[in-house]
Amino acid sequence: MRVSFIIGYGVPKFSILLRPHGSCYLCRPMCSSSTSALTTSQKPRTSLFLRPPTHSATLSDLQKWQNWAKNLASSVGSTFVDLDNGPDSTLLRRELKWLVEDVTEDGSISAEQQRNIRLRVSLEELYKLWKQRIEERRPFQYIVGCEHWRDLVLCVEEGVLIPRPETEKLVDLVADVVSDNQGLREGLWADMGTGTGAIAIGIGMILRSYGRIIATDLSPLAVGVATFNVQRHGLQDVIEIRQGSWFEPLKDVEGKLAGIVSNPPYIPSDHISGLQAEVGRHEPKMALDGGVNGMNDLLHLCKGAASMLKPGGFLAFETNGEKQCKHLVEYMETNAGGIFCDVNLVPDFAGVHRFVTAFHK
Amino acid sequence: MVLASGYDALEGKNNGFSSISSLPMVKGSLEYNGVRVPFSLCRCFGTATAVEPSTSDGLTVQGIIANDWTILNESENDWKSHAAAIAQSIHLIKKRLQWKKLVVRLDMLSAELNKPDLWNDPVHGGKVSREHGSLMGKMKGVLAFEQELLEHIDMIKLAREENDAELEWESVKALLNMRRISKEKELEALLAGEQDPCSCYIEVQAGAGGTESMDWAAMVMQMYKMWAQQRGYRITVVDEMPGEIAGIKRATIKVDGEYAFGYAKAEVGVHRLVRISPFDSNRRRHTSFAAVAVIPILGDGSSRVRINESDLRIERFRAGGPGGQHANTTESAVRIVHIPTGVTATCQNERSQHQNKASAMAVLQCRLDQLEMARQAQMNAQHTKSLTDITWGSQIRSYVLHPYRMVKDLRTNYEVSDPDSVLEGDLDGFIMSYLSASLDKDDNP
Ligand SMILES: C[S@@+](CC[C@H](N)C(=O)[O-])C[C@H]1O[C@@H](n2cnc3c(N)ncnc32)[C@H](O)[C@@H]1O
Q1: Which of A125, B40, B149, B223 has the greatest number of C-beta atoms within 10 Å?
Q2: Angstroms from A52 CA to nearest CA on chain B
Q3: ipTM of the shown complex
Q4: Under 8 Å between Cβ of A168 and A346
């Protein structure tokens, strides 16, 4: 299957919505960034669970692999935890269970099955994958090619940030504000730096036929994966993907946005080298590095939001924690020319001040 | 007796075969099996609770039992033997259904149903009418069975008077059939509780004693998984807190299927294990404990506790560090605390935080429902029995692997000398004997 970037554009509703700007908006995302990447890209690697079960192995060979993998997981003990807050063996064993879930047809290996078990990858591949998990610390989500996030299963691959559980709450925050605000519910939203498309799809599930979302990213890989995920969830009428740097691909909707939501890169540059191996060695720096104090993109987005949002529009950002939250709140309350109101600091489920929300006056 | 004839006189019939639905409307109150039965029941809902069925010559089920006819083997085609066996079954079924309480409760519900303002509160109205319908169904079922028995007896007598061998043979055969069905009905009556048909959660928690008990808790959980599987129930692990070295600290599974709660509730309590410890290099004998709780999952029809979003505290177990983009983890366990009651629920086996939260919410809802049921049961003395069903309970069973091998239920003294089969899920003997023991007690009417 070829995934194109323009799936969202042919949809009448969207065109009507954006028609005032004529047809040039249609090509803007195409022109805004490296065009070659667009045309040659970007069929994402197929997640394991979506592959056909064309391989097979005997029950005993598979059990042998499973035991080997379990032992490997157990041998880790707490070394990764001590090293860089990585996974412990309990967690790795649970991941192993999920790997089995994704590569077998009925989700488990049990003695009642026939002697030959159909698999979505070969047995050799399974050995290779689990070695990568333990020895190279390759993130589990890249191994299986997906991440379960909210009630969604999102495809993900190297080059695209794996959505974090914390970020799920950004969608709840949007759900809360649209629940009693028709203007916001039926408006146009933007997810800036969409990665896999997680936030946009989460919000899309809530807005459904009411509102529309534009999801942007600078990374062609992310755009490819997000496009695929949007299609897989049947939201191509609701979410349009655009490629480009922050507000650049959104010039046609300036002052028209009902809401802006973003989880931009926010890790301070000098933290990058000390990150947990799964993150530092495998996830894209472009998705993580937020400059010297990690605030470059957050502040850029905050400034831009002032002119992008319509009056009464809503804003929600994820941050690195309390320090960045406070910094952002201070900026909004004192330096933003009184444009924002109801500035709020919201904790994640671990109790860390994680999100800042506000309304455009 | 007297009443039955009174009724016959009223209707001008004397065959004892009148169908249940054609009961007359009579005001007043009647005595039935020593229970005062208000006639409002008949007036409004046309049932036969008020009248004890009898044969044309006045024989009732109680009468059959009092006659003390010898009960022979099924293969002996003796109608009196069949009739006596069926009568005893009916007696047992009534006992299991807690007949007296059933009648009182129905009376109360009927009175409620007659209130003109009942449906002002549709939730309450629905609840009352649902329970009324369900109890009435149970009662009608038994009475119809009773009626059928007496009809066949009448037929046999008639056949004898008229020397109709074929008719007599047919009727004896019908009695034999009833005798067989009555055994099934006895079993059904064991699971007549309002929540019995529900799916449920089973929770196992390791007692004090570290790895020993955690290993035992894992064995107990495994026993329930296998039992549920053998019964054809669907199992999902909701929460599992592994022990550091072996076993589990606690675990919760969801058991989906008809009557899962009805059966599993018999397992509530503390389970004790005696064995030579596999973790003790000196091979000493150890005693370990695991506690089992069972929570019904009320159907959509039931009224459930309304949970206020603002009463909840949702927590995620945090690995430390700044989290967010810094961390890649597949750990997304969630704990929900219901602040007013302190009730908590945890889920960590789903692959996303959102799903863990949803599962934990479902568990929390059921816990709060259960708590509410307990509260109501306390207020409503006639349901006090269920109170013991909902706590973790006291020690109920002992599993001895050494120096001898035996599993013994301390409530019923039911015992099995093959612990392996029990630990592999062969629990029905224990469950049935407990259910019948708790319902067949003599102080039950
Ligand atoms: C922390 S990730 C968040 C991804 C996704 N929203 C999520 O929450 O899972 C930040 C995203 O911003 C994108 N990004 C980085 N710089 C950007 C820029 N200048 N313009 C647009 N997107 C950018 C990255 O490619 C990455 O996908």
Answers
A1: B149
A2: 22
A3: 0.86
A4: no
